[in-house]
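Dear Dr. V.,

Thank you for agreeing to look over these. As mentioned in my earlier message, I'm a first-year student in the group and I'm still getting used to reading structure tokens, so any feedback on how I've presented them would be very welcome. I ran two proteins. I've put each sequence directly above its structure. The first is here:
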Amino acid sequence: MGSEMARLMSRKKGLEIVGAVEVIESMIGKDLGDVIGVGKKMRVKVSNDIGKVLSGTRPDIVLYATAGVLEKLYPQISPALKAGIDVISTCEDLAYPFKRQPELSKKIDREARKYGVTVLGTGSVPGFVFDTFLIVLCGVCEDIRRIEASRTTDYSVYGELANRRWGIGRTLTLDQYRAAVANKELRIMEPIMDSVHMVADVIGWELDDAKITSEPIISKTTGRMSGFRQRTVGIAKGVEFIILNYACSIMPKEDGLEINDVFSIEGKPNMNLVIKGGFAGDAITVANNVNMIPHVMNAEPGLKTMKDFVVPQGTLSDVTRLLRI
């Protein structure tokens, strides 16, 4: 993600990359242009010391494509906050952390305000598909009674190491899978819960509860787990008002899955929308983080989310035209 963001930024008029930080030893000391393969020298050496990079370059903003868990991200972004530098991150937990992680959210917001900086977490899920995009669709409705969205993705592109965290490739019964999830041995898409809360807060629905259920998809060919299905719901007065379904597989055709994103809103007017092939998750994450740079720099200090900004805008020319600084 970091390399893709750097490639995109290198093509943007008005943006100058002044530093790059990485932990992979083979990249350290090399020119960033060589590392990301843009065919030219960028006169920026990759470092493993963010403190030196921040003090030596004094950037306006830092993009973090590192941790997906907020507890791990916080110590990474803290030096930037204290140096008075705006932050954007791909961290899933940062997209709308107020309900699941209220204390750490308050701490980050407090520090951001203290040092006069803006912090934003965004990406694809969460950050766009299950929240920002739904909020935009709801913006043309007179009345909304129920929202349901479903996303199905092909995980074969991520490889064995990346999929191991979900249990993909393991031989598990349903009970074993549920036990592994409950024990935090295996991950589920828990940040989708944050999308439920973001949409509900924007619409004005007061939820009594929000729940996640998840089950493995077992390949008929290998007998091993090839993916999983997850259902995340927001409930008020015993009624499921928001339903967000997520399914993934490393062999979607064999598992009978069609890759797409489906959106349904019951209200006035009713809406039914299908994105054939689905939104490209990695590309959305990269573009979302880079395109939000001028908007974050324009924003008031504090921990912000995508609902705090105007409709996301693609920036195809000089980004400086959007800045008010």
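The second protein is here, in the same arrangement:
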Amino acid sequence: MAPTADPYSRPSLGLGERLIRLLACEFSVVADCDKLFAALEGMLPHAWHRFPVSHHHRLEAWRAEEGYDLREDGQALEKRPDARSAADFLFERMHQIAIAALAEYTKIHAGCAAWRGKRFVAIGPAGSGKTTLMTRLLYEGFDVYCDDVVLLRRGEVLPYPKLFRVRWDALPLLPQLSPSARQRESGRDHLPLDPTELGFAWRVEPAPSAVVLFLERNHGGATKREACPRVTMAERIMSHSNAPAGGPRVWLEHVRSLIESATPFVLTLGDLAGAVSAIKAALGEAEAS
């Protein structure tokens, strides 16, 4: 599949300036260091999305005698010692601002993908296999949107665009990854992965979900799929999500709207081939119901 257009990273407006979009936020990043921009480029998600921009921010990074002086909308931030750490700090700050700009949404720790137009979310704690599963699904004909965070509101799921974080110890489970991706040095405890760099389309837009899965680990074993009572699924979702600005009542309403429109299952995640089949079957059953 051909990569989609990339609205997150636009051409420079001038020397040392870059525009970056993350959902509702547009950031003007100004710096006097090509090395910092190069480091920043390696963190940007090249996803396509349709979402209105409502917030504008200016971030600055200036070389100083003892590192980099950083500023956000004119206010000084903490100094960073080198270009890489300055880029890391600015990008994490952009994500914090972008999430905060959507305070009316419930934030769920989940991946999100679709099969033949039917979307599902896969919820689970760290280490449950969300990223490994979502990466495998790229090679199984699924449209994969995110591996870590989805935003929920009014019955619609909005994937949050961020590079996938594939653990190094998960690479043996993903032989489909291109040699260039597998061999890329990141200097981190994970491999940052952009689906567009592997030739896949990456689209981020809100849509309803037909299925909601809760992942439980069964590493080294077989994958099993079981129906889950909606009340139980609601409890599990709330234990792996953050409340919106509207408080508990709105939080409950968001979760209720999801599980009323989506068929809930527990996916005991073992072998990935079995997981692919189980998810296709779940989506097929949801379509038939």
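From my reading of the second output: The chain has two domains: 9-100, 106-288. Residues 163 and 194 are 5 Å apart (CA to CA). Does that match how you would interpret it?

Kind regards,
E.
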